[in-house]
Amino acid sequence: MEGEIIKSEDILSYPISSLKGIGAVREKLFKKLGIFTVRDLINHFPRDYEDRSKLVKIKDLKDEEAAAFIGTVASRVKVLHYGNTKYLTIQKVEVSDETGKASVIWFNQPYLKNVFKIREKYFFYGRVKRSKNSIEIQNPIYEKIGEALDQNTDHEQLKKISRIMPVYPTTSGLTQTVIRTAVEESLNLVEGYLYDPLPYYIREKYKLAEYSFSIYNIHFPCNNEALKTARKRLAFQELFLLQLGLLSVKMTFMEDKKGIILSKGELTQKLINSLPYKLTNAQLRVFNEISKDMESGKVMNRLVQGDVGSGKTVVAVLSLVKAVENGYQGVLMVPTSILAEQHYQTITNMLKDYNIKVGILTGNLKGKEKTKILQQIKRGEIDIIIGTHALIQDAVEYHNVGLVITDEQHRFGVRQRLLLSQKGENPHMLVMTATPIPRTLALILYGDLDISIINEMPPGRMKVKTYAVNNRMRERINNFIRKSVSEGRQVYIVCPLIEDSENIDAKSSVTLAEDIAKKDFKDLRVGLLHGKLKPSEKEAIMKEFAEGKIDILVSTSVIEVGIDVPNATLMIIENAERFGLSQLHQLRGRVGRGKEQSYCILYNESNSKIARERMKVMVKSNDGFVIADKDLRLRGPGEFFGTRQHGLPELKIANLYQDAELLKEAQNVAKAVIEDDPKLMKEENTLLKKMIDEMFRQKIDEVSMN
Length: 706
Prior knowledge:
Elements: H1 2-12, H2 24-32, H3 38-42, E1 48-51, E2 66-73, E3 78-81, E4 89-97, E5 100-107, E6 121-130, E7 135-144, H4 156-161, E8 164-167, H5 176-190, H6 200-205, H7 211-219, H8 224-254, H9 267-274, H10 281-295, E9 301-306, H11 312-325, E10 329-333, H12 337-350, E11 358-361, H13 367-379, E12 384-387, E13 401-407, H14 414-421, E14 428-433, H15 439-445, E15 450-454, E16 465-469, H16 474-486, E17 490-494, H17 509-520, E18 526-529, H18 535-546, E19 552-555, E20 568-573, H19 581-588, E21 599-603, H20 609-620, H21 624-635, H22 660-676, H23 686-704
Parallel strand pairs: 5-7, 9-14, 9-15, 10-12, 10-13, 11-12, 13-14, 16-21, 17-19, 17-20, 18-19, 20-21
Antiparallel strand pairs: 1-8, 2-4, 2-6, 3-4, 4-5, 6-7
């Protein structure tokens, strides 16, 4: 078996240039698709399929459907001109079978005049346009077939062309034919050498096809049933390996790590009782889950998800107080200095009646001031430390960290949060995000964490009224902006692009800000915020806006995670169709933080059905989890916010919305395997371990680093 694996590895590692027909130019094009080796090529799964396997008669061709049929050429190729130039042409030929006639046309392919001859038979596949008196097929693929072809016989040529054909993701200059040929040659090359990573007992229990069968049939399925079987096997494998890898990472993180045992204490309950509002059941439930973790003797490694305004901050404060009450320091890391300052003010105010010292450490601190706070942290004179990336710098030494919280988790990599955790002796870890993620996706992104969800909003919080409009409403909306500012309110205007682009019909934030500042609202104070500004410039502008010195803040989506400005009551989003639903919901969450009614205006310039459907979701719902679920369904996991930022293998074939049940099965199997064989040392799990190590090498290295 070992020799077979080595041979298989050798073949799979062949560069694609070793395949017939792949020269330097094509090799470069394949590399654009991330295809360097035979392994990459056989894992370049089709994005769609053309079912050319069912031949139909001409009379049975249906309007707007793609279909395959055999037709005999019944006329010479006619060349028709259209438009005002002789260079725009249509090539038209009549074809027939025993049931009827059809016109087949192509655009600007003059060479076809010499291709088709009367009475020759051709295989055609294309989309049908049917009216009362005519049948037309535009730009079909075609192939001449042998004279003696009888559709009722098992004809080899017909078997080859009349089948389910893969349609691959491609790049300019690389045709489907070239990709198909290369994939087919690769499959022939690896035949007999593909080892199956799934142990037999798993395949048997879940009735999964063998790996080699599945790989071949995902590319060139024998029939629809084989395609379905192959897809199920490969999707299961992908989800299973992902879950197994995440559980392995979790095991590595937990391995030989005894957690700090914190006692129940009374201070947190005293704080809960003294709050000017009552905590929601969801807040109490999540804090209870956190408390149990911190009292268990194991290292807590938990994610708290909560929609904008659901009250995550108070849960974080209670957790920090629990650590302090037990004699430990608590650390809260946030993405920006201004957010750190806001948390510092909020938490200091909440704890003013308690003997708890709160400090702040950001990149803005310099000289003596910085030296002083670093010494206070080291000596344990500060109980709760709030800050930015500055918290993980080498110069920072903590006295005894018991709890580390990272807020807006998606803004920090795994490495950053682990660097922070390693500032202490196995401190408890809590990561928080206001980005609602459907549970299926959360289990993929955060499979190495336990998950808590604050799924209830505090009573009395006003919903942001949302409207989807087009440019015809521009003047009316501008009047509404002016009215809001005249009443002492502030406004966000968000744009999707930083700079002008010839290819995209959307105003950049810079151009738009200039228009607003110099034309529409020249008498008002307009600020501009975008990603190309220096961090210090961003901080200064956001601070001015927070202090009410700017009326209208024109921004890119950098304000999606940022500041709490209760006086901002109006959010205008330009080209809203260019943002994901979850991102739109995050942006909308910047307003509605005060006592006044707030509004969100979505400018939608797209007429597409999906764009209209997405705007409808935003107008109807204020529930971030409902919106996130819809976003996942409409855009798929590949584009869903955050997927590519976590260093996880990208899903090539599984669809988290479509395969939710398969994911549950895969998770159950992964848990059972890890419980039975935590380090995957058993012989039947050897290949699994090998694949996991390859897929998760970086993530495991990060978790294991010292």
